[in-house]
Design brief:
The protein is mainly α. The protein contains six helices and no strands. The chain is globular. The protein starts with 29 loop residues before the first helix and ends with a helix.
Length: 192
């Protein structure tokens, strides 16, 4: 739910499912839906925590000394793993497993074309080549990851996903617990 000024509002702990009977797709078990939503919420929270850590530690300004590169890389790679999971949630690859949980499971339809899809699928390719596998692509210089843009795009997709889900099931409240973190991101980086 959004307040009068457009900010997300809700409790900081509630992510319970109120009803799922009208949600299309393969989600026909209330307990399974709740577990899958909890896993999705975890991924989004970790993404937001990661981008907050990376930006608050001035990663983009080079303020972290070279002796702390391992710490920075640890946080960056953890952040990117969560980004990769969420990109695949919204836009699964052709070789996705039948057990992968994706947005279509909840919506009964694909997320559709968007500028975010184009950017994020390109980022996923880089992540696949540079993070998920030991490949020869690592020999080439990489310009780095635009972690704030990635998070902004994923939050835009999250907002579309939730909006569409609430059209299907108006009492949907599963995402209220994310409102505080999303507002903090929007305050720091713009958006909404």
């Amino acid at each position: 739910r959004r307040s009068d000024d457009g900010r997300l509002v809700g409790s900081t702990t509630s992510h319970h499912i109120t009803t799922v009977s009208d949600i299309p797709g393969s989600m026909d078990n209330r307990e399974d839906v709740a577990k899958d939503i909890d896993a999705y919420i975890y991924e989004l929270k970790m993404l937001l925590f990661g981008v907050d850590w990376l930006t608050s530690n001035d990663l983009h300004r080079g303020a972290i000394s070279p002796e702390h590169d391992d710490v920075v890389n640890t946080y960056l790679e953890a952040y990117l793993v969560h980004a990769r999971v969420l990109i695949s949630f919204f836009y699964p690859t052709d070789n996705a497993r039948s057990t992968d949980v994706v947005a279509k499971d909840f919506l009964g339809e694909e997320m559709g074309e968007s500028i975010e899809k184009d950017r994020l699928t390109n980022e996923r390719t880089a992540l696949d080549q540079r993070l998920a596998h030991l490949t020869q692509m690592r020999r080439k210089m990489h310009e780095g990851y635009r972690h704030v843009l990635i998070a902004g795009d994923l939050l835009a997709l999250h907002a579309r996903f939730v909006r569409r889900l609430k059209e299907i099931e108006p009492n949907w409240m599963a995402f209220d617990s994310l409102s505080v973190q999303i507002n903090a991101f929007e305050d720091q980086h713009g958006g909404g």
